[in-house]
What we know:
The protein is α+β, with helices and mostly antiparallel strands. The protein has helices at residues 2-21, 24-41, 45-53, 59-65, 74-81, 84-96, 98-108, 112-123, 134-144, 149-166, 188-194, 210-223, 260-265, 297-305, 309-328; strands at residues 132-133, 174-175, 233-238, 248-249, 258-259, 268-270, 279-285, 291-295. The strands form 2 sheets. Strands 3, 4, 5, 6, 7 and 8 form a 6-stranded mixed beta sheet that branches. It is globular.
Amino acid sequence: MRMLSELAGVFLSLAACIAAAEPASYRAGARELAEEMERQHGFDRQEVANLLAEARYRQEIIDAIRRPWEAKPWHQYRAIFLTDARSSGGVRFWRENRHWLERADATYGVPPEIITAIIGVETNYGGNLGRHRAIDALSTLGFSYPERADFFRKELASFLLLTREESVSATGATGSYAGALGLPQFIPSSYRAYAVDFDGDGRRDLWASPADAIGSVASYFKGHGWRAGEPVAVPARLAAPLPEGLRVADGKPAKPEVALGELAAQGVQANEVLDASTLASLIRLEAPEEEYWLGLENFYVITRYNHSNLYAMAVYQLSLAIKSLFEAEGGQTAAAD
Length: 337
């Protein structure tokens, strides 16, 4: 009896610690969402409440989202993703999934190296799918992260809808600290809107099906305006100091709105020959020396996946490295090897 009493005391202490760690908004937010899911989507309120009672507030998730990798300077950020290992891993992924990558290119117009680079940057080709329970990440951010609570609360609702639509385990699904899921790290609303059953097995499975992940990335890009066969970005050089009033995109992406001819007249020259009417945004990357690029429409589309010029540039440069290595090795499939 004494042992049982001591164990009960330990459990009560742990429960008290968990409760003490939770902001007051956490459980209140869970109650409100349960009511909303019943009212708007036909869920059983008590079932949702019981499910959310299993979710846990995680302070480390709040800490992680407040120190994103995209806050690093370019030369540090680039070094994370532009590595020989990630390039060779991309070639392996391309060989193993060549059929699906070529089919995605034919269907959506998104080339294999871009799709491969996205999955390489996001999860190292499935090697790191995230260690956080999605329900913990999304409830923590949706109920206890005021800066973006509305966004993540909507993503939590989308996640609950996703569990019903795709038979995803609400308490077993894991992902990033921001609730991104599967090989391509789709947030739940993107999963529901853009994921495709590319292998035709009746499910949109972004965890276990590389085919579905490949098709879904291509579907996402096409849905955000990817232009098949067009370039992504070109290096730029400055013939003179930048004139006042010329908008430069440092960290945050800018939609291409200035014609290359106009930029050239202001001393910004593209390192490749493109039509003077092509619209671009001038991008400045922080490095030991400043680095300038002209981001075209397809570059902007990549930033819709992650709203960061650093992210889009890492994807683009990794895609070039993967393609170069793939072609240097003969572009053979795994079967042919």
